[in-house]
Amino acid sequence: MTERIRAAIVKIVDHGDSTTILGPSGALRFDDASAALVRAVLEIHARPVTRDALVAELAARSGGEVPAKPVDDLLALLEREKILVAPTPRPAPAFHGRRVVLGISGAVAAVDAPVLVRGLHALGCDVRIALTRTSRRFLSLPALDALTHHRVWRSLWQRTEDAPVPHINLAEWAELVIVWPASATTIARIAAGDCSDLVSAIVTATRAPVVIAPSMNDAMLGAPPVQDNLDKLRTHGRYVVHGSLGVELAHRPEDRTPMFGPAAAPSAVVELVRHLLTHVVPRPRLPADAAAWERLWSTTPLDQLPWTHDPIDPALQRALEARTGRLLDLGTGTGTVAIAAAQLGYRVTATEISATALGLARRAATTLPILFALDDVTASNLDGTFDVIVDRGVLHCLPIERRDAYARTIAARSATGTTLLVVAHTGGELATHPLAAGELAALFPSFRVVSTTPTTLSGGAAILVELRAA
Ligand SMILES: Cc1cc2nc3c(=O)[nH]c(=O)nc-3n(C[C@H](O)[C@H](O)[C@H](O)COP(=O)(O)O)c2cc1C
Question: Does domain 290-469 have CATH number 3.40.50.150?
Answer without folding.
Answer: yes
